[in-house]
Amino acid sequence: MDFVFPNDLNVTWSVMIVLYPYITGLVAGAFIVSSLYHVFGRQELKPVARFSLASAFVFLLFAPLPLLIHLGYPERSFNIMITPNFSSAMAGFGYIYTAYLIVVVMEIWFVMRGDFIKRAKGGGLWALVAKVILLFNLHESDETRRADARITKILAAIGIPMACLLHGYVGFLFGSLKANPWWSTPLMFVIFIFSAIVSGIAVLIFHYFIVSRINRWRIDQPCVRSMGKYLWGFMIVAVSLELLEVMSVAYKQTEEWEVIHDLINHHLFYSYVVVQFLLLSVVPFGMLATTALVRMRDSINNTLLWMASTMLLGQVLLMRWNVVVGGQMLSKSMRGFTSYFPGIWEKEGIAVAVIVFTTPFFLLWLFHRFVPLFPGVEKKA
Amino acid sequence: MRDEKDAKDVKATPVAVEGEESSAISRRAALKALGAAAPGILLVACGGPKPPPPEQADGYDWSKHYWGYAVDTTKCIGCNACVRACRAENDVPEGRYRTWVERYRIDKEGQVAVDMAKDDKAFKPLNDDNIVKAFFVPKICNHCDKSVCTQVCPVGASYQTKDGVVLVDTKRCIGCGYCVQACPYSTRYIKPGHDHIADKCTLCYHRITRGMLPACVQACPRGARIFGDLRDPNSTINTILRQRRYRLLRPELGTHPKCYYIGLDLKVV
Questions:
Q1: Given an 8 Å threshold on Cβ–Cβ distance, is B195 in contact with A72?
Q2: Nearest to B186 among A2, A7, A91 (CB)
Q3: Which CATH superfamily is domain A17-84+97-370 in?
Q4: Which residues contact B146 (CB under 8 A, 6 or more apart)?
Q5: Which residues in chain B have their CB less than 8 angstroms from residue A327's CB?
Q6: pLDDT tens for residues A144-159?
Q7: If you count residue pairs, one on A and one on B, with CB atoms under 8 Å apart, how many are there?
């Protein structure tokens, strides 16, 4: 077990391709939360309905950025849509992404039209921006509000399968590559959808607690408790599916298992077994189970929820890493492994990744300055 | 196949925007016009329709050939002349390989070890009594009939020519690396440096269309590498494939490789 094909020594997909499914996943998860309110009428999620929709939007804007940074010729990226090769799973990205972006932008437009109008009636540059967004139509009445609500519901309903499609598709990109035993499984896209929802809910809880703390807002307790329960449920499914996948390969004892066994037990032992599973799955599972099943003071409940969400954010990021990088550590010679650790300052390094990941949060802050994402929030006494 | 694609792509032409009768263009009309013009603008921005077929010699008819490759592993002596010839002929970047040679060693316990010679030089002889069997396996792109790399290329930059060679259109490749991940034989790589695109064996397309042999075949002192026209029943490669027993690499993946291995032992992948 020591021979690596010479072209496998260099990892082709690195940090940016880890970040791409991660950010896309945040979009899908955040969108699902907003749809739980808009479509399924989960009233307790109303306080974060706009916040989750806006989060989905800003992350969606940044989803293609890691890909563009990764591409050798980003200026040719539109070729994917203009001269697509339809036999390629990747050729669908441009269309699926654009369609989803249109749905999300339209939903935001209809959900927040009233607020845009308020802005437009004010003064200054923001008013002009709001007018442009509104296409200079400032008419508002009960009738328009009813129409907006109706259209919002339809868009949110269309958005759910599209969110699943967008993220399932990202999983399919990996799952459909028959050359790689660590990727090639039909379960891959299902695993990606559920881990996406987990990361999306987790980022909302994580972020909601932070902005509430900074602004001294009163936490909406039924809302965060409900999100915590959803997070718990979805993480159980996501982690179970991942375990089932590995267990089925292990139990079948096929040729592939020989190399995958080595990959898991040596090369990915810490990042996969120890950190992703034992630390960042089992511990948050316990925390979320406690918050869901045991009555306790709000402050303790919220601390546990925040910690569990933060850990799950890390868990899903690590899962993406273990899939993307792990799959490339395993040489197609099936006889050896390569290693990889990212640089900090290189083009596809850690520093750029941090900028790409944190900018959406800044954008969300700007968004909130423009149109309040938490209407009706109360300040702490 | 490529011709059809070319024809299809040419159809996408920009739509001219008709001027409105009045000087005030309505918002709807402006948006419509922008929407209609967008594909054209993007098409121009991205370099237009696909370029013509790859460089071929005058008088070469790619519909009359179907190129194949065979490796007689019983003949290879591990001199690596082929690897050096390929690097020189095709300007292959250091640390990347369009072709390489592996050495398999099986010891008394049945343990298999595989390695490559350093710096493209010849393998150093082994004086190890423990080894009961050893052989060399030259590797190269299999130019698969059902190639995964061309299947997954999102822009059609990786394609199969009519004469059965898998090539990369350097002007269309976006450098996403999906083909590199998809190839089960790891014969592709992304070029290091500025020109960040996929690169691979072309079977020396610039040579074979002029009636010459690929550089690796030309350089082999033992005739271990065989190149020829699978469409010609009397070609050397067809004669050898009729006479000898051969194996394909990873046939279970359904890629239908066109590199035939004679005398291959064990589970060489």
A1: yes
A2: A7
A3: Formate dehydrogenase/DMSO reductase domain (1.20.1630.10)
A4: B254, B255, B256
A5: 181
A6: 999 999 999 999 999 9
A7: 149
Contacts of A72 in chain B (CB under 8 A): 173-176, 190-191, 195-197
Instruction: Provide the residue ranges of all domains of chain A, joining segments of one domain with +.
Output: 17-84+97-370
- In chain B, where are the structural domains located? 12-45, 61-269
ipTM for the predicted complex comes to 0.94
Which of B9, B96, B100 is closest, CB to CB, to A83? B9
Segment B158-210, tens digit of pLDDT: 999 999 999 999 999 999 999 999 999 999 999 998 899 999 999 999 999 99
Q: Count how many Cα atoms sit within 13 Å of the Cα of residue A297 in the half-sphere of its side chain.
A: 3
| A177 pLDDT higher than 90 | yes
d(CA A71, CA A362): 25
Tell me which residue has tokens 């394609």.
Answer: B159
CA A110/CA A289 separation, integer angstroms = 37
Flag if A79 and B115 touch (Cβ within 8 Å): no
Question: Pairing state of beta strands B259-262 and B67-72?
Answer: parallel
CATH 3.90.180.10 corresponds to the domain B61-269: no
Q: Do B195 and A13 touch (CB under 8 A)?
A: no
pLDDT tens-digit series, residues A338-354 = 999 999 999 999 999 99
Cβ–Cβ gap B151/A135 under 8 Å: no
Q: What is the pLDDT of residue B41?
A: 55
